[in-house]
């Protein structure tokens, strides 16, 4: 047992490790709160001292590594010069000399690349020592206190990021600039909107634009879970409008904001789960099932509107503050980002999007994964509906609202953000927010540059369709020939 502990803890003294082991074997009545606190503080002080010492050692070694790296590169250049001089002395034929020079330069170039890769890996291994030290510290503290604070978890992630991040490699990586394209395009369309607005005198309210962007961003954030599996949901717009109506009617009847939100989210989740279950039971492609549900939801909503004369008036008192909307988006995004990137749900979704057949044979339950994804998407629909109802506080709405375009805007948002329509490993939650704001500002840009003589906004759907096709082809260009067809249903 002691040998295993010795191997596991390379940075802390064996005496301290043994004391921790002995402490864990004590009965609970002997572990007084003051004793636990004192022991954990002692371990923390030892860790801080070792971390300071290790940090100093790493800085010294980084200088040594850099000197050795520069010396190796200089030696490669000297060897190249020597070999080129020898080649020029031994080859009179210019064509043959050019071939020899090209070969020597290529060998030198590859040797330099190999040396740089080795140097970067050595730096990474050296900096990771602090990560390993911190991991050992958290293990010791956990065995003493039984908990690891969120601060220590964040610190460990920060140390790992700092150890693995390479600014030069990032700046020379083509993919880094490709990933920046959506953000740059968003900034461009926002600037174009303000320029067009100043020229034509367009009276559109920026607050309404941002609110509409939040609606799409919330729905798109949840829908990433569906699209990452290679799925498709045509009912997003009608479903979010249904959730809005439920939230509005609940608030009108009770005046309770929390209850309105809970019921809207519940309805959204139920509609999403219903899509997934029916698609599985009827063995239908998800797109077909959601298209059917879109029409069913529209018919039900129309029937509800008929009961209120075709228009629903939202009572005053719902919060329509922009910060209120932003907080909902930020919290929902953070939760979805964590689930998608740090839980089995996200990893399985990416696997399913890559290849459903392989995912099934690796033991992934496609039906359960589909239900979870549609449920999370439904939560986004509910939040969007609640926020829309809040924005209409003191006014009324009918069947035709801004939510009618949510479905198309979500597709554009997700694809524009960098995902492929088939999902897979390139899926990411962050694309939803950038793409959502882009799609809404694109609509507003067309409205801003329209004139009485020529309504550019009439062509917005055509332009959006063209953008969708172009970006889809660009995103899938390097993977489309490698994808294996695996059916369109959940299972």
What can you tell me about this protein's structure?
By secondary structure, the chain is mostly helical. It contains 18 helices and 2 strands. A two-stranded antiparallel sheet has the order 1-2. The protein starts with a helix and ends in a 15-residue tail after the last helix.
Overall mean pLDDT stands at 82
Distance between the termini: 47 Å
- Lateral strand order in the biggest sheet: 1-2
Radius of gyration: 30 Å
User: Major beta sheet, specifics?
Assistant: 2 strands, antiparallel
In DSSP terms (H or I, runs of 4 or more residues), the helix count works out at: 18
- SSE order, one letter for each helix or strand: HHHHHHHHHHHEHHHHEHHH
């Amino acid at each position: 047992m002691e040998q295993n502990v010795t191997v596991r803890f390379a940075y802390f003294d064996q005496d301290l490790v043994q004391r921790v082991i002995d402490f864990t074997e004590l009965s609970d009545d002997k572990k007084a709160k003051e004793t636990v606190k004192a022991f954990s503080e002692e371990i923390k002080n030892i860790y801080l001292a070792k971390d300071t010492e290790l940090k100093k050692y790493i800085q010294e070694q980084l200088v040594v590594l850099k000197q050795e790296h520069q010396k190796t590169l200089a030696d490669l250049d000297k060897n190249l010069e020597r070999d080129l001089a020898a080649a020029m002395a031994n080859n009179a034929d210019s064509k043959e000399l050019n071939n020899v020079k090209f070969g020597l330069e290529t060998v030198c170039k590859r040797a330099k690349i190999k040396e740089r890769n080795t140097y970067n890996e050595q730096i990474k291994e050296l900096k990771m020592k602090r990560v390993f030290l911190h991991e050992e510290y958290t293990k010791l503290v956990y065995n003493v206190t039984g908990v690891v604070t969120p601060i220590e978890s964040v610190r460990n992630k920060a140390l790992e990021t700092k150890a693995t991040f390479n600014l030069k490699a990032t700046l020379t990586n083509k993919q880094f600039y490709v990933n920046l394209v959506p953000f740059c395009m968003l900034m461009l369309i926002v600037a174009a909107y303000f320029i067009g607005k100043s020229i034509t005198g367009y009276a559109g309210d920026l607050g309404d634009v941002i609110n509409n962007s939040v609606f799409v961003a919330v729905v798109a954030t949840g829908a990433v879970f569906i699209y990452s599996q290679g799925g498709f949901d045509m009912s997003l717009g009608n479903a979010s409008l249904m959730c809005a109506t439920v939230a509005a009617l609940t608030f009108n009847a009770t005046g309770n904001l929390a209850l309105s939100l809970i019921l809207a989210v519940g309805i959204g989740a139920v509609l999403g789960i219903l899509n997934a279950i029916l698609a599985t039971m009827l063995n239908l492609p998800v797109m077909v099932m959601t298209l059917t549900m879109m029409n069913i939801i529209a018919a039900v909503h129309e029937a509800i509107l008929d009961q209120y004369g075709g228009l629903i008036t939202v009572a005053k008192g719902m919060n329509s503050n922009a910060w209120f909307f932003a907080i909902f988006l930020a919290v929902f995004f953070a939760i979805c980002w964590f689930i998608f990137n740090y839980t089995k749900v996200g990893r399985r979704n990416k696997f399913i999007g890559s290849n459903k057949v392989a995912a099934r044979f690796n033991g992934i339950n496609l039906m359960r994964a589909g239900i979870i994804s549609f449920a999370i998407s439904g939560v986004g629909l509910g939040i969007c509906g609640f926020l829309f109802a809040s924005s209409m506080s003191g006014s009324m709405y009918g069947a035709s609202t801004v939510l009618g375009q949510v479905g198309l805007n979500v597709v554009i948002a997700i694809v524009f953000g960098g995902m492929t329509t088939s999902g897979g490993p390139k899926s990411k939650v962050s694309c939803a927010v950038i793409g959502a704001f882009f799609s809404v500002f694109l609509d507003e840009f067309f409205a801003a540059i329209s004139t009485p003589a020529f309504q550019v906004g009439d062509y917005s759907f055509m332009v959006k369709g063209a953008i969708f096709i172009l970006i889809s082809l660009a995103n899938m260009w390097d993977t489309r020939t490698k994808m294996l067809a695996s059916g369109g249903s959940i299972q």
